[in-house]
Amino acid sequence: MIQKFSSWICCQLGAREHYSIPRSLNKAGQLTHLITDAWVPPDSMLNGLPKPLLANLRERFHTDLAPASVYAFTSSLIGFEIAQRIQKKTGWEQIIARNDWFQKNAIRLLYKLDTQLFTLNYRPTFFAYSYAALKLFHYAKAKGWRTILGQIDPGPFEEKLVMEEHARHPTYQSNWQPAPSHYWTKWHQECSLADRIIVNSLWSSEALQQVGIPEHKIDIIPLAYQPPQQAYDFVRTYPSVFSDERPLRVLFLGQVILRKGLAALLEAAELLNDQPIEFWMVGSKGISIPQPSHGKLQWIGSVSRSATVMYYQQADVLLFPTLSDGFGLTQLEAQAWKMPIITSKFCGEVVKDQVNGLILPQVSGQAIAQALKFCLNNPWQLEAFAKNTDTSSFNLSQLQQSLQALPYAVI
Question: Residue 198: how many CA atoms within 13 Å on its side-chain side?
């Protein structure tokens, strides 16, 4: 007899994907518990602080999960982060310490919930994201639970690409370092313990297979995104001609690092220096720029999640020339605001070439410049792309159906 697993426990470090997996499961009545590092409901004392303080932490809540069973370690997280600063831990040392801290707290909680979980009439499905799942999977396997790994990026194959990009551009100084070897050893162990591995794009699936993860274990499920209500009524307009008074506004939103195609973007900016175009660079800067930045580049810096809305509304096109991304949620956010996208082939499949944007044949300054010149010379085409934007196939209901259709979900 086929029986669907209707009980899920989700362990999530961070606000990844706006909590889309636990939200979709909760909507279907299948989320038993969400275990996360921080949760700040509206009545939290933290929301009484002046607005700039702990802005990102205070966004760690979602109304869709207000009625759900959510366990978090918010106070412990604040203490952990303070200790990390005092100890001056950074980079991989800090990332690995945070992953270990989260798993230790989650396992301690699971032991407390042991009696309650034992009363379930079926084995729950246990979901956790990569790099913070190994200890949790050992616990889940000992209980006889099904284990699902959410792979957040294309793994060690991506690291190899980034290493090569840094070698090609030594003048762009950064603090980037490859992960220590034991980081990847533990990841391979996570993959071995996982019954299924969820990736968000064909690109990620191919990258995992390149390092020995069997294809039969991998399932491709795109990200889900629920547009904000005000996005549905938003109307995007373009001038008949771009000019110095009304230039083409190109939005780059994300980490300002080489993996995101920064070297090619900056080369394109130089090639287009005499054109009515400006680049809005929104995100934390992870590389130093050797040449002086010309006036076309506006370095805005890091902003909170909620503050990105203004840039989606006011820019004309999103530039996403990534060398490698597991998906690129910013693509769905841009589409929700009816914004055309110029993207690479190395991420989630959101853009249909010449329908709702442009797909770069390669990540190079020349290719980006050519795509932007097309936009400059054809504002009417941008308007057509904007009318073709669509996020309907990336909704929570579709995500929930995809999760239930996975082979592990039946016995």
Answer: 25
**Domains of the chain and CATH, by start:** 8-224+395-409 (3.40.50.2000), 229-393 (3.40.50.2000)
Three-class DSSP labels, 182-235: HHHHHHHHHHHHCCEEEECCHHHHHHHHHCCCCHHHEEECCCCCCCCHHHHCCC
Sheet holding 317-320, edge to edge: 297-301, 277-282, 248-253, 317-320, 341-343, 357-359
> Considering only CA atoms, which of 369, 335, 189 is closest in space to residue 264?
369
pTM of the model: 0.91
Write out residues in the chain with pLDDT < 50, as ranges: 1-4, 409-411
Contact status, residue 251 vs residue 317, Cβ threshold 8 Å: yes
CA gap 306, 394 in Å, rounded: 20
Question: Is the separation of the CB atoms in 38 and 77 below 8 Å?
Answer: yes
Sheet with 70-72: list strands edge to edge. Answer: 70-72, 31-36, 8-12, 125-129, 146-150, 196-199, 218-220
| Strands 196-199 and 248-253, bridge-based pairing | unpaired
Joined together, the tokens standing for residue 393 give 């196939």
Residue 294 pLDDT: 65
By C-alpha distance, which of 38, 37, 40, 35 is closest to 11? Answer: 35
Helix, strand, or coil (residue 361): coil
3-state secondary structure of 145: coil
H or E element in which residue 23 lies: helix 20-27
Q: What does the alpha-carbon distance between residue 353 and residue 208 come to, in Å, rounded to a whole number? A: 26
- Give every CB contact of residue 263 below 8 A, 6+ residues apart in sequence: 165, 168, 169, 172, 365
Q: Tell me the residue ranges of DSSP E strands in 40-180.
A: 70-72, 125-129, 146-150
